[in-house]
Amino acid sequence: MSLPPEKASELKQLIHQQLSKMDVHGRIREILAETIREELAPDQQQLSTEDLIKALKRRGIIDDVMKELNFVTDNVDQELPSSPKQPVCFTDRQSTLLKKTNIDPTRRYLYLQVLGGKAFLEHLQEPEPLPGQACSTFTLCLHFRNQRFRSKPVPCACEPDFHDGFLLEVHRENLGDGTRMADSTTMLSISDPIHMVLIKTDIFAETTLVASYFLEWRSVLGSENGVTSLTVELMGVGTESKVSVGILNIKLEMYPPLNQTLSQEVVNTQLALERQKTAEKERLFLVYAKQWWREYLQIRPSHNSRLVKIFAQDENGINRPVCSYVKPLRAGRLLDTPRQAARFVNVLGYERAPVIGGGGKQEQWCTLLAFLCRNKGDCEDHANLLCSLLLGYGLEAFVCVGTKAKGVPHAWVMTCGTDGTVTFWDSLTGHRYLHKPINPDEPPAAEQPKPLYPYRTIGCVFNHQTFLGNCQPSDSVESCVFDLNDESKWKPMSEEAVKSVCAPGATTSLPPFPPLCASTIDASVTSNEIEMQLRLLVSEHRKDLGLTTVWEDQLSYLLSPALASYEFERTTSISAGNEEFQDAIRRAVPDGHTFKGFPIHFVYRNARRAFATCLRSPFCEEIICCRGDQVRLAVRVRVFTYPESACAVWIMFACECAS
């Protein structure tokens, strides 16, 4: 394999740096002097190359070098822009935390190391976990320029033992031209921050968002040798966004090293100009939004009570335009259809933002990375993600803000078809509803469509480009007409104004959208584990009641098609395969015996928690605690995996006994 001269020189530089790091030259000189002193006969004038190589092999120097410097040709773990040649890789055996580092000499990298944490005072009194003991853990999640990384979990402590390295690809100038890399000036114009999210996972696998931080990495461009160390103070989220939760020690290093660094003054000036430009855009949008709101209230004073949401607070307590929470998002090959996307969003957990004390709901719209890493969020988080995915599939989708029964604020998604049909998508349940407006001018005797959806009022709709306030006489959903081009019914905001602060790259304060990650859960293994745990729990429960337990494996297997059919129906709204399941059960259950089955669905994988929930159902308890002659029990678990390690868990308990 021949390399271009530029790549060959890059490769030589990498090897030279690694050899220098190991001090191989010094060790060779020592062995050479020792060999000459001990082994060179008086009549010999010089030592041959073969003699020296033998001496190096004997002392293990060559083995050490080959262990340290491994050229790997397997596929890298992270997808990078396609390249006809495999990237050069070497392994640093001395680092127990980063086993394999993928290096392509044609690309510019930023190596970010997290070198421990301190002052996590909430965990000051936490005892050190014993070996093998379950404990709460911290996990650090990163997103930078369409790349995502996750640290190894470390036990929660006042000084958590983070020691991880992340190799972030920064930029390669003119993709396809491998001979040119971006210089310092070009990289200074890349304003994307490194988004860091800290997640706490307790012993029951429940996740909590601890902190969300945007790291400005470009200070490294003005540092000597392209290396700098930072102390990052992480602040809490929501109501605790002004309270420090801990400190991370971070080291940044450019790779390959920069030929020419910028002065710190130039870097600071660039960052100050960007902040100034962003602040001015946000100020102008705020002035426009205030004017728009005044005009909206002049249409009808009662509009003041409608849920017209122009700004929303993120997890850091920062007010951002709602349109910035939505962006067309493509799921690659992870999700195939809009309905499958709706099912994925539905199986992500629902949790309202935590609030200390009373006083109603705490508002918190999470950035997408924080929502995905925590794997749960409020109805607004679900609606924003579903709307983004539907926009990615080419649909005309909007987030709707309004209320459900009893005036509870709610958010859902609406799509408008080319034929005028309006469909509501509930992002929490996955249900879809066709909207047919009621005509209030019709006589009372006239038949009106009966709405099936749970929504009562609607104040506004928005997506990444459009914001519309409902200015119809009534904000009732059932009588609402969704002709969004009719300005007498929907008051629009200027699209230019929305784009000035919400378009990608419009302001440096906009968090970039991360890509979705494939599931890391093995569906078969997880299904078997939960099933075995449930069998044990059922047997123990029946033993406490003085009952024996006999499992019927064949009957358990026959329950699988039903679980697959239930998930298929949830995804597509089409029922299939029920006839075959019923026929198989009729054949399996002997004459004179009764069959009972109870299916139930969860979005978590905690078997004990699921079992406790099942026992609260009288019908399920009747099956599990079944008494009688020739009682045979069956249980089947089927885990369906989705991106971001979200999953739908279907469980079916069944029994057969003599009538």
UniProtKB/TrEMBL annotation:
<protein>
    <submittedName>
        <fullName>Centrosomal protein 76</fullName>
    </submittedName>
</protein>
